[in-house]
Amino acid sequence: MAEAATAVQSPPAGAQAVQRALGLLHCFHDNGPDLSASDLARRMDLSVSTAHRLARTLVSAGFLEQDEQSARYRLGPAVAELGQLTFHQRGLHLAAPELDLLSRRTKAAADLAIRSGPHAVILVGASVRPDTGLGLRRPLHSTALGKVLLAWPRPGDAAVSTLGPLLPFTDRTITEPLALDEELARVRTSGHALNDGESADGVRTVAVPVLDAAGQARFALAVRSTPAHLTDERLDWFLGHARTCADALSVLLLPPDQRA
Q: d(Cα 122, Cα 135) in Å, to the nearest integer?
């Protein structure tokens, strides 16, 4: 029996190599310069030979490219192809006009994000860089987008207690897990999240969920401006426009049987 239990708990063959290969791809998240095998080894805490072997495997599958002269690596065409495929499969190409309309109506920046581990990843909206197509990766605990994604989690999403240290970005950032739990309870009760200078001074953001039929936040939608523009007196007005946009996005992005 003990041997059977041990066998069940053992990771599948090759799991470590897969995890390392995926970690290697994540090394390119910052959109910096091409990386050498030494760069990858340092970021992954691997030997240079192991990093080089993993990188060459990813090159052969099209997930990385290697410059013939410098021998440095960059993301390959397979990543671009899969990125475009999932972007369109999720219907995110349909979201941009709705976010643009929300931005024009509120005269504020509008963003749409999903959760990726401890981050809210902005996929469409004002925070997506036009030169690269990359959005921001923002910590969950210090942003309105992140609070929404934490307040209405999806199956498999890690709990607040697993996020690790809640780092302060301003003197208003919530850094205690118990305080964050209390804040998320308020978010669920009110139906929206507020970031009032918690991620950066002079920035105020309100966010609402795009919920599915199970009551889970498939996306988070945010409107961002300054405290002088996004005032307490006008908060309900901003929320009304944000929720109208969220309703439209639920129709565009979710299949009929999954809509709230």
A: 5
CATH assignment at residue 20: 1.10.10.10
pTM over 0.85: no
22, 48, 79 - which closes a domain: 79
Instruction: Select from 39, 56, 79 the last residue of a domain.
Output: 79
Domain assignment present for 85: no
DSSP one-letter string for 122-147: EEEETTS-TTT----EEESTTSHHHH
Task: Tell whether 4 is covered by a domain.
Answer: no
Count Cβ neighbours within 10 Å for each residue of 110-140 and write b for 16 or more, e otherwise.
bbbbbbeebbbbbbbbbbbeeeeebbbebbb
pLDDT means per 10 residues, the chain with 260 residues, are 41 72 85 85 91 91 89 87 76 89 97 92 84 74 97 90 91 96 97 96 97 95 97 97 97 91
What spatial distance separates the first Cα and last Cα of the chain, rounded to whole Å? 46
